[in-house]
Amino acid sequence: LVTGQSATSSPYVWTVPNVNSTNCLLAISGVDGLGNPISDTSNAIFTIQIQKTITITYPNGGESFMAETNENITWTSTGTINTVDIYYSTDGGFAYNMINDNILNTGSYAWTVPNDASITCKVKVLDTDNQSTVLDVSDANFTILALPVTNSISWTNPLGGNWSDGANWSGGVVPTATDTALIDLVGTYTVTLDASSTIQRL
Known about the structure:
The protein is 0% helix and 42% strand. By secondary structure, it is mainly β. The strands form six sheets. Strands 6, 8, 9, 11, 12 and 13 form a six-stranded mixed beta sheet that branches.
């Protein structure tokens, strides 16, 4: 509602409200020089649509992720955005790799962080139907940390035995905190964890 506007101030610059409607009309009313009421209304209805926007909330810069861990990419949006496409960059946003496309716009996506180490990573979320105009990119860089280099040590005794006995492992060495222990020997046997042990992965 605008009141007290001079009749000679046409055109009037109108800030369109942020509402969704397909049944909009404009009405103007006033009085003429003799004090008689005058008015006019739009000849036909028109449409107002809420502006579509996407705003990434995480990761948005400064985070550090270990490769092959799970992180939730999150964002907010306005307007009607049915599906989105998600990308990540390791060079500060010059080139992007697809994470997934045409996914429902739920505001969150469970991402398995790739083993693609970089200190200049960003994510980008786009409206599938308006990729060039409705999108957002992380405000600043985040970091992906590479998986540590590990040795693989395999179980070799088909009869089973104690974990702490080096004779049961390839190379005669019991796996330690920097090793990957592989127990993939075909057969039925029991590996007895007879001592406390820390390994990189199993």
